[in-house]
Amino acid sequence: MTYRAPVADMLFTLRHVAGLDRLAADGLAPELEGDMAPAILEEAGRFAGDVIAPLNRIGDKVGSQLRDGVVTTPPGWREAYKAWTDAGWNGLTADPDFGGQGLPQLVQAACVETWNSASFAFALGPLLTAGAIEAVKAHGSEHLQQTYLAKLVSGEWMGTMNLTEPQAGSDLNALRAKAERAPDGTYRIFGQKIYITYGEHDLTDNIVHLVLARLPDAPAGTRGISLFLVPKFLVNPDGSLGDRNDVRCHSIEHKLGIHASPTCTMVYGDEGGAVGWLIGEENRGLACMFTMMNNARLNVGLQGVAIAERAFQQALHYAQERRQGRAPGYTGEGMSPIAEHPDVRRMLLRMRAQTQAARALCYRVAEALDRAHRETDPAARKAANERAALLTPIAKAYSTDIGVEVASMGVQVHGGMGFVEETGAAQHLRDARIATIYEGTNGIQAIDLVQRKLPLSGGDTVRGVIAEMRETVNAVAQSNAPGFGKTAERLRDAVDSLERATAFMMEALGARPNDALAGATDYLKLFALALGGASLATKGLVAADDSGQPARIASARFFAEQVATEAPALERAIVDGAGAVGDGALVLVA
Amino acid sequence: MTYRAPVADMLFTLRHVAGLDRLAADGLAPELEGDMAPAILEEAGRFAGDVIAPLNRIGDKVGSQLRDGVVTTPPGWREAYKAWTDAGWNGLTADPDFGGQGLPQLVQAACVETWNSASFAFALGPLLTAGAIEAVKAHGSEHLQQTYLAKLVSGEWMGTMNLTEPQAGSDLNALRAKAERAPDGTYRIFGQKIYITYGEHDLTDNIVHLVLARLPDAPAGTRGISLFLVPKFLVNPDGSLGDRNDVRCHSIEHKLGIHASPTCTMVYGDEGGAVGWLIGEENRGLACMFTMMNNARLNVGLQGVAIAERAFQQALHYAQERRQGRAPGYTGEGMSPIAEHPDVRRMLLRMRAQTQAARALCYRVAEALDRAHRETDPAARKAANERAALLTPIAKAYSTDIGVEVASMGVQVHGGMGFVEETGAAQHLRDARIATIYEGTNGIQAIDLVQRKLPLSGGDTVRGVIAEMRETVNAVAQSNAPGFGKTAERLRDAVDSLERATAFMMEALGARPNDALAGATDYLKLFALALGGASLATKGLVAADDSGQPARIASARFFAEQVATEAPALERAIVDGAGAVGDGALVLVA
C-alpha cells in the first residue's frame, strides 16, 4: 500500500478552516488565482506518492552510512532529491528575487505535509534548508545573501542548524562553542555540535552550516551567543567552490527511526578554525534563531500530521483487506474485514479524527503567518503575529503527540503483522517518535505556551481565539444537520474547561509559577482538543451547508464525543496539578 | 544504569493490596512461612539484576539468528538460561511431584515481573514453557506427564504454543493445520504455523511444541480443533533423545523489538508427518488452551508492568543526573537536575503511578488464581475463579497499554538521547510494543471483559469488585492522613462512572451488541483506572496507618488527581460510542 496525498481534505481544510478563501478574498494571495492551489497540491501529491514514497522503506533499511568522513544516503535518494529540486519544490515560499516562488505558507504547509508523509527522513533535510534561507534572508549581509541564497532556494545546496552541544540541549545558556574574530572581518569557529540533522551527506555539493557560538568577550548566558554561517566548502567570488572548510562529521547516531536522515556530530576548528561569517549582530544570535523558530516548529508539527496520515492510510487499507471473525450485523460472506468490527473501527476513526484535527491546527498557524507577512495594516499584522505565536506550540506539540499515538495505533490495527518490520507500520512509529523531542521538546512547547504566549496583549490574543471557538459551538448548536449528535454539547464543555483553565493559568503565572508549570502540558492538550474539535466542527458545518458530505460531520462528531471528552478531566488535572506534582522532595522516593 | 528489582514495593503490594497476608492468615500459603516471600523476591531480584539485565542490550543488538535451520541466541544467553534453570527459577509454581516448588502464583507474579524487567526477550521463553507445563499437567495422559513434565519443570526442555496461521489469528475458526490418526495411537501433524515464540533455538536440547490442528472428520469451526504435543526430538522410553521429528523452523521474523526472542514460522509434516500425541480429547483442544489462557494473559500483563518499571528506573536515574536550566525555586548550584522541573516530574510521577497501579492489578489476579486453586470451600473457589476471570483481561490490557505509554514517556524524559539506541530507552519502547498485541490483542481483551466476564454470576462478580472499591474510597474520605488531597473525591467520581458504565454495558449487551462493543476498550480502561486508583489508595491507607511513608500517599494522590480523572470522560465516550463509532458505512469514507 503506497501513499496518496489526501488532497481533498487538505484543500477543504485550507479553504474553510485555515481561511485560504478569505485570504484570497482580502487580496492577500494574488499568486493563487484560479485553480492554482488545487493544481499545486495535486502535483505535489503525485510527486510525493510516485517518487518519494517508494524510497521510504529502503531509507529505513539501509540508512545513511558514514565511512571515512563521507556520508552516503540510501540508494535512489540522490536522484529523488535532484528530481525534487529540479521540479522547483524547494523554493515554494522563498523570495522570487532569489529564485523562489513567493507562495503563501498555507500552500507550503500542505506540501510539507505531503513530502513528510511520503518520507519523513527525506523531507527533513529541506526543512533545515528552509530555516537557513529564512535566517540568511532576514539577518544576513548583502554578501551572504548574494553568495548563498539562490543556491539554497534552488536546493543545489542544503542548510543545517547547529545549536546543541552535549551539555547544552534545552538550555542554550550552557553553550560553549567558540568564535574568534579574524582580521579580514570573518571569524574562526571552534567546537563540537551534536544531533546535527543532515550535517554531512552526498545530496548536494555544498552544505551551509548555521552555527551558534560565543565570542571571547561575550556576556555569559544566552545574551552572549552569536550566529555564524560556516560553509562546508568556501565559495569563490565567482560562485564556484573553493577550499574545504575546517568542519567535519565525526560520527552519526544509531537511532530509533529516520535512519536515512544522518544525525551528525560535527567538529569545527580542529585544524586551525573553521571560517565563518557573522549573521546579524554579535551576541544577538539567539534572536536570529528565534525569528525562524515559529516556522520550524510549524514544520515539525506538520511532520506529526504527515506520519499520522501515512499510518492511517496504511491501517485503513489493511483493515479493509484483512478478514477475521464476523462482526455483529455483518451481512457479507465468510469472515468480515476487520474494519467492520466496532473496536477496529473505533481505532480507525480515532486515527482519522486526530490526524484531521492536527492538520487543521497546523494550517491555522500557516494562515496566521501569511497574514502576519501580508496584511498591510500594522495592527492586523501584529494580531496575526501573536496568533501565530500563540498557536505554534499547540500545533507543534499536539500534532507530534498524536503522530506517535496514531502511528502506534496503526501498529495495533495490524495485529502481529504490525510488529514485523516488513509491514512498514512499525517504521512510522519509530520515525514519529523524534518529533515530540526535537525543535523544542513538547514539554518546552507547553511552557512556552503558558509563560510567553498566554500573556500576549494582556491575554486578548488567547481570549480572541476562545471567542471564535464559542461562535463555532453556537453554530453547531443551531445547525439542523443530522449526524452531529452531541457535538455542540461536548465542545461547549471543552471550551468552558479551556476558559476556566486559562483563567487559572493566567492567575497562577505570576504568583505561583510552579503551579502553572505543573499543568502546562495538560493545558496545551486541552487547548488542542477544544480548538481541534472546533476546527472539525467548522468543516462539518460547511459540509452540512454544502453537499452534506456525511463523513466530515461524522469526523467532527467522533472527535467531540470520543476525543474532546477528555477536556474536563484535563481541567481538573491542571487545577490540582500543584498539589499532585509539586511536592518534589517526597514524591520521587520509591 | 542497570535494573534493581523494586522489592519493597512488590512486597508491599503483595501483602496489602493482593492479600498475601490474608492468604497466609487463612492457612492457604503454608510454603510462605516466616520470611520466605521476601527472601525469594530478594534473591530473584539479585539474579535478575546481576545476571539477566546485563544481557538485554546485546540481546537487542545481535538478536537471535537463523542459519541453515539452526537458531542461535545472542552471546551469553545460553549460559544465563542454564544458570537460571540451575537455580530452580523455572519451576517455582509447578507441582513438586515433577520437581516444582509448588509456590503460590502471587510469589511467581513478582518473579515473572522481575525477569521481564531484566530482559523481556529472555523471560518470554519460560512463559511459554509455563503454559506447556500447565496444559500437559491438566490434560496430558500419564505417559505424556511422565515423559515431559519433569524436563519442562526443570527447564531442561522448553515449550511452545502453536496457534496462529496466516489466515487464522484472532479468529481460530479459520485454522487449517491437519492431524491424522496413526495406527499406534499417535498422530501425524501437517501444516504451517506463524509467530511461534522460541519455536527454534539453542537454549535447550529439546523443544516441546503444543500444536492446534484439525482431524479429518472434525466439525468445522473451533469445535473441531485438537491439541497435540509434538517434540522436536522424539523421546526414547529411557528418556534419552531419539529421532529428529518432522518439524522445522522455516524462517524468523525481523521485528520491531524483542530481537533476541526468535519468532518462528514452523513447518510441520513436510517429510511425511510430524509425530504428535493428543492432549486431552479430540476436538476439545481449544478448551485445553483456554485453561492456560488466564495464566498466560496475566504473565503478559506482568510484562507490561516489567517494562514500565525498567523504563521508569532508567528515566528517573537520567533525570536526577542530567542538568538543564534552573527550575523555579531550585536552590542548588548551577543548572537543576531535570527531575526538578515540574513538567519532567509530572512525567516521572505518571510513569511511577501507572506502573504501580498495573502491578497492583496483576498481583490481584495472581491472588485470585491462588484462591481459586487453594480454597477448600467450593463456593469460595468459584468466586475466586470468577474474580480471576473478570480481572485478567483488565490486567493484561491495561498493564501492556501503560507499558507502551511509560516506555514512550521514558524516551521523552531522555530528550534527544532517548532517540539514540545506545541509551537503551528506545529498546524498552520497541520491546513493549508487542505486549498489547499478542496473547489476544487488547481489543480482544476488552471484548472478552464485556461479553464474557461482566455476565458472570449474573453480574454479582463485577458488582462485588465495585463494592470493594467503594469501601476503599470511603476509608480514604475518613482518613485524617495529610497528603491525600482530593484522592477520595476523584476516586469516588471514577467508581461512580464505572458503576453507571457497567449498568449501560450490561443492558446494551443483549439488545445492542454493537453498542457494547464500540465502547469496550474505553470501558476496560475505565475499570482499570478505578481499580488501579483504589489499589494505590489502599497502599496509601496502610502507609498512613503504619509508618506514614509519604511517597505511597503521594502516588495514590497523583493517580487519583492526575490519571483517574479521565474516568468521567471515558464514561461519556462509552455511552455515546454507538452513535460515534456505529455508523460504519459513512465514517470510513475520506
From TrEMBL, chains A, B:
Substrates-to-products reaction catalysed: 3-(methylsulfanyl)propanoyl-CoA + oxidized [electron-transfer flavoprotein] + H(+) = 3-(methylsulfanyl)acryloyl-CoA + reduced [electron-transfer flavoprotein]
Pfam family of the protein (one): Acyl-CoA_dh_1
Occurrences of domain Acetyl-CoA dehydrogenase-like C-terminal (ranges): 466-581
UniProt enzyme class: oxidoreductase
Cofactor: FAD
Keyword Flavoprotein annotated: yes
GO molecular function: flavin adenine dinucleotide binding; oxidoreductase activity, acting on the CH-CH group of donors
Keyword list, A-Z: FAD, Flavoprotein, Oxidoreductase
Domain Acyl-CoA dehydrogenase/oxidase C-terminal: 283-452
UniProt domain Acyl-CoA dehydrogenase/oxidase N-terminal: residue ranges: 74-156
ATP-binding recorded as keyword: no
Gene3D superfamilies in the cross-refs: Acyl-CoA dehydrogenase/oxidase, N-terminal domain, Butyryl-CoA Dehydrogenase, subunit A, domain 2, Butyryl-CoA Dehydrogenase, subunit A, domain 3
Biological function: Involved in the assimilation of dimethylsulphoniopropionate (DMSP), an important compound in the fixation of carbon in marine phytoplankton, by mediating the conversion of 3-(methylthio)propanoyl-CoA (MMPA-CoA) to 3-(methylthio)acryloyl-CoA (MTA-CoA).
Name this protein carries in UniProt: 3-methylmercaptopropionyl-CoA dehydrogenase
Species this chain originates from: Alsobacter metallidurans
